[in-house]
Every structure is written in structure tokens, then in C-alpha cells.
Amino acid sequence: MPYYYSLLTWHKFFDEDYEEKGMISFTEFMHKYRDQLVDNPGKPLVEPYVFKSEQMRGYLWDKFADLKYPYFAIRKGWSKGACRYDEQGMARPCTDEQLEKSIEYFNYAIDGGYHCYEGLIARILFQQGR
After folding, report:
1. Could you tell me the pTM of the whole model?
2. Whole-number average pLDDT of the chain
């Protein structure tokens, strides 16, 4: 369900901001394939009310990452390793604690079955070699 909700949050991007020749809009895709988006027993997916609250969604996603669910761990690893930019647009260096926490979440993702190792390895090496 969280994967489905994550797709829904990209609705505006894929409908209005991303136009590629031959690509149908997100709205058209959902209209055409909605009956195929089902859970394990085959029931249609329904957006849980709890995900409509950004604070609650953030809290739940952080908890899922701490419980080592790969999808959430990878997202939290990326967010922990993002060190923002200053007023001039220059990247700020991350603290060692931020980098260690980011790598910890990336390891949770790998241990949980995440398979895109190249991206994680590049990110971990980039953070370590700064």
C-alpha cells in the first residue's frame, strides 16, 4: 500500500510537468489500469486515510525505516544523507553522524532485499570519500 500511495503523490508531476512523446498521463494510466491495481487477495487498492496526513505519513514511514523495511530504509537513507544547500547554492558538507546514519539505513535496505546495489554502493562511497 505505501508503494501505491507513493505513486499517487507523483500525480501532478506525471500529469502536468513530465511530458514525453507517446507517454500517457498518470490520470489516463490510472483510469485504464485501476482494476489491475489490487492487493494480494485481489481487492482493489484504497488509499488509507492515515496517509492523507503528512505528519502521520512521515511518522509511519520513519517507523517502517527503523523496522528495516527496505523501501522505507532506502528513502530514509537518501534523506539522511542530503545535507542541503547554502544561500549561494553550494552543497553543505554533511556531518559524520548524518553520513553514518544514512549508511546504516542503506545497509537496512540491502539486508532487507533491496537489489539496486550499484546506486547504494556509489552513494555510500561518495559519502565516505567526501
Report:
1. 0.61
2. 78
